[in-house]
């Protein structure tokens, strides 16, 4: 009896769960559903994928640990190099061009012009349109001999149709075509983000600049651009990540009925797909995926550093 | 700015998740598939009362809508076996074998599997997804000789995992009206490559929308590359590819001269080979015998304007017997993890056997069991060209598989396809492309 009392008082004096811990537990309980989902569907597969990069596995038979063999193969694999190179070129082409077009559109459509809402919708439309459908239309418009673009170019310049670029069907023009397509398709989305950013710019800053005698260009470079820095950072990051992850656009523009990309259009994710599911080489494919992951991680870290110095 | 940072980390995590999910989607599941493996033992004790127990079989196939014989086959089988219901799972024709392998690794409850090509078959065997059939063939007294040697061609280490039900071979289709208009004599059942090329050049005419191309080679590797193996001197799994050079030179020359359509354009526009034949854009079409049934159908429905057509035997190298051609077999297999193996095997026996062959032939498709009776039944189908040459064209002398059975044939196929695409789009020269094939296939073979 006495013992129990001691225990009871001991408990009440020094509760098992302190108030601070209780707060933490409440907080964790709110995070838990999300975190459990993340752990189950992201963290565990991620760790599994990293392990897979060090084995040889066809998906059914037992795995064999091969150490860093997969990475040594990567260094020598010219097909992988080609895919990596194409992805980098694509990213370098798409990112600045999309940002410039989206910003220009946002500034234009932030003015009070007639039909502003219609124009905003029109520029946003390609982003929501089905990729499969617009890629087919695009390929028709840019068809080397029958397409309106080349026929128009032929009429204007008088250059014979056979000598005009063959766009998606031409190994030297394919990358240019796909960059153009991506910019056209996605700029509407980033325009909307920039438009939102422009709403956040304090109008007093423009007034102050004007009083100081700044002209339109000065106001743009000294007020708009710095004020938009957080937005630009966000857009840049999403664009780089999306460009490295690209797959669907290339498949729809170039791959044809048998899903085959060649040296001028092969991208990383396609190469990963091909290696994993066609050659059943899951280990090697995961080594590639790990490289892609590290690249994107690296880019993101660099961007954070730059952002810290410049954004605040 | 902290918000941005969190967001950034979130995005990176999302990317990583996408990456990993993409590649391990079926890995994650294969642990779970261990459970169903135990199931077959239960059901294999059940076949005693095979007669009446209702069974539903799932059949993996592609292009349900466009294929004439699936429905009649199911109908014929279920009429004789009313307790069986057959459901189909259409995995689509693009990357069908990849889809199938992914589904099976993920433990999908498919019972009967259609095998579309050899590389995919070799992968499934390696992955241990297919039920070995030697025992079943012996027990049920199936005579493999009836398949004309095709069963032996898909043996893996003396065991066979599928039985063919279709055996297609390549032919030249031609549009008689276009030949008449050009005043060029029709192709014959005995053409060397040079004669074939000469005819194609002669019958090419016009420009712009009225252009008639003399020949058509679809974007598949087999439609171009495999002229090279018809002399029987080389195969595409030996690891040496210099012998393909004359073939690529010939086809690229035809492409440069505008005798055949440009490969890259065909690909980016996803042009189907049937479309160009239907609308009188090509005078000859290099294609497999599966197109006979489709062409007959589309002429009847009015979709094909090439109503006056014929077929002749595939062109051959100098000094090789006419009727030497490329072949593709389509087979059926049973999922090793199926819980209804006995019912599945019985259906397989029906489709790949004599009865199935009759049903398949009645739709204009060439079954794997191919005898004189089957040939004349196809040639007598309403809509089949009436000239003697077309009927004679159905007789083959020797068929080489598009991709021979080889342990590494899936890996080799990937390399060959890549280089084929690079050569045809001029991303690489013929020499460099063949060199790359040599180098990489060598590596695959030595591994």
From TrEMBL, chain A:
Identify the PROSITE patterns for this entry: ABC_TM1 (PS50928)
All copies of the ABC transmembrane type-1 domain together span 84-303
Which one GO biological process term can you cite for this protein?
transmembrane transport
Q: Spell out the subcellular localization from the entry.
A: Cell membrane
Q: How does it sit in the membrane?
A: Multi-pass membrane protein
Location (main, coarse): membrane
Bilayer-spanning residue ranges: 25-55, 88-109, 121-141, 173-196, 228-247, 284-304
Per the record, its GO cellular-component terms are:
plasma membrane
The highest taxon in the source lineage is Bacteria
Write down the InterPro entries for this protein, in alphabetical order. Answer: ABC_transporter_permease, MetI-like, MetI-like_sf
Which Gene3D superfamilies does its entry note?
A: MetI-like
Q: Keywords, A to Z?
A: Cell membrane, Membrane, Transmembrane, Transmembrane helix, Transport
Please give the PANTHER family that the UniProt record associates with this protein.
Answer: ABC TRANSPORTER PERMEASE PROTEIN, INNER MEMBRANE ABC TRANSPORTER PERMEASE PROTEIN YCJO
Which family is this protein grouped under? Belongs to the binding-protein-dependent transport system permease family.
In its UniProt entry, what is this protein called? ABC transporter permease
Q: Which organism is it from?
A: Paenibacillus agaridevorans
From which lineage does this chain's organism come? Bacteria, Bacillati, Bacillota, Bacilli, Bacillales
Automatic annotation (TrEMBL), chain B:
- Give residue spans, biased composition: Low complexity: 31-48
Q: Which UniProt keywords apply?
A: Signal, Transport
A GO cellular component annotation in the UniProt record: cell envelope
The record, for SUPFAM superfamilies, names: Periplasmic binding protein-like II
The answer to keyword 4Fe-4S applying to this record is no
**Entry's localization field:** Cell envelope
Query: Which family is annotated?
Result: Belongs to the bacterial solute-binding protein 1 family.
The protein's name is ABC transporter substrate-binding protein
């Amino acid at each position: 009896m006495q013992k129990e009392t001691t225990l009871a008082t001991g408990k009440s004096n020094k509760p098992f769960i302190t108030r601070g811990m209780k707060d933490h537990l409440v907080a964790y309980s709110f995070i838990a559903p999300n975190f459990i989902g993340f752990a189950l569907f992201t963290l565990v597969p991620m760790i599994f994928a990293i392990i897979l990069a060090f084995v040889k596995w066809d998906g059914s038979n037992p795995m064999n640990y091969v150490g860093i063999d997969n990475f040594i193969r990567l260094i020598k694999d010219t097909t992988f190099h080609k895919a990596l190179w194409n992805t980098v070129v694509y990213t370098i082409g798409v990112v600045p061009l999309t940002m410039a077009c989206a910003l220009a559109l946002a500034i234009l459509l932030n003015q009070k012009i007639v039909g502003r809402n219609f124009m905003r919708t029109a520029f946003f439309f390609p982003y929501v349109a089905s990729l499969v459908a617009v890629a087919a239309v695009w390929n028709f418009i840019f068809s080397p001999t029958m397409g309106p673009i080349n026929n128009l170019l032929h009429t204007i310049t008088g250059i014979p149709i056979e000598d005009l670029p063959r766009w998606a069907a031409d190994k030297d023009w394919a990358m240019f075509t796909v960059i153009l397509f991506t910019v056209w398709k996605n700029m509407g989305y980033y325009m909307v983000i920039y438009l939102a950013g422009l709403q956040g710019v304090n109008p007093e800053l423009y007034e102050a600049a004007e009083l100081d005698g700044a002209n339109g260009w000065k106001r743009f470079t000294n007020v708009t651009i710095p004020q938009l820095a957080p937005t630009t950072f966000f857009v840049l990051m999403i664009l780089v990540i999306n460009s490295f992850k690209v797959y669907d656009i290339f498949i729809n523009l170039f791959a044809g009925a048998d899903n085959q990309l060649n040296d001028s259009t092969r991208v990383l994710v396609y190469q990963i797909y091909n290696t994993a599911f066609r050659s059943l080489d899951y280990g090697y494919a995961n080594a590639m995926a790990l490289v892609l992951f590290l690249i994107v991680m690296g880019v993101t870290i660099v961007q954070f550093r730059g952002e810290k110095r410049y954004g605040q | 700015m902290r918000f941005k940072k969190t967001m950034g980390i979130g995005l990176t995590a999302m990317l990583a998740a996408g990456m990993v999910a993409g590649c391990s989607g079926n890995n994650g599941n294969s642990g779970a598939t261990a459970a169903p493996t135990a199931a077959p033992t239960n059901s294999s004790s059940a076949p005693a009362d095979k007669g009446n127990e209702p069974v539903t079989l799932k059949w993996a196939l592609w292009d349900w809508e466009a294929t004439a014989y699936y429905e009649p086959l199911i109908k014929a089988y279920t009429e004789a076996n009313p307790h069986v219901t057959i459901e189909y799972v259409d995995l689509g024709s693009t990357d069908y074998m990849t889809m199938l392998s992914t589904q099976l690794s993920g433990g999908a409850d498919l019972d009967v599997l259609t095998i579309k090509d050899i590389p995919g078959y070799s992968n499934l065997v390696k992955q241990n997804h297919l039920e070995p059939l030697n025992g079943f063939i012996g027990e049920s007294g199936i005579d493999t000789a009836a398949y004309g040697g095709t069963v032996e061609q898909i043996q893996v280490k003396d065991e066979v995992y599928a039985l063919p039900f279709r055996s297609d071979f390549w032919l030249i289709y031609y549009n008689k009206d276009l030949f008449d208009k050009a005043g060029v004599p029709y192709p014959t059942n005995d053409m060397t490559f040079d004669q074939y090329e000469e005819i194609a050049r002669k019958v090419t005419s016009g420009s712009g929308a009225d252009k008639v191309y003399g020949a058509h080679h679809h974007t598949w590797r087999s439609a171009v590359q495999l002229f090279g193996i018809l002399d029987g001197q080389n195969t595409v799994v030996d690891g040496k590819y210099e012998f393909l050079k004359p073939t690529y030179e010939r086809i690229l020359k035809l492409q440069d001269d505008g005798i055949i359509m440009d490969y890259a354009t065909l690909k980016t526009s996803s042009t189907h080979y049937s479309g160009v034949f239907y609308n009188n854009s090509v005078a000859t079409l290099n294609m497999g015998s599966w197109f006979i049934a489709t062409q007959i159908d589309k002429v009847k429905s009015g979709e094909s304007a090439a109503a006056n057509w014929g077929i002749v035997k595939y062109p051959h190298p100098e000094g090789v017997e006419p009727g030497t051609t490329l072949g593709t077999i389509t087979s059926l297999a049973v999922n090793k993890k199926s819980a209804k193996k006995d019912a599945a095997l019985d259906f397989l026996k029906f489709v790949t056997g004599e009865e199935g062959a009759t049903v398949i032939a009645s739709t204009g498709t060439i079954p794997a069991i191919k005898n004189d009776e089957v040939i004349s039944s196809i040639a007598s189908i309403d809509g089949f060209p009436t000239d003697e040459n077309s009927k004679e064209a159905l007789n083959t002398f020797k068929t080489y598989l598009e991709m021979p059975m080889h342990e590494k044939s899936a890996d080799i196929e990937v390399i060959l396809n890549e280089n084929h695409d690079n050569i045809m789009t001029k991303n690489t020269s013929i020499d460099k492309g063949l060199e790359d094939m040599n180098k990489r296939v060598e590596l695959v073979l030595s591994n």
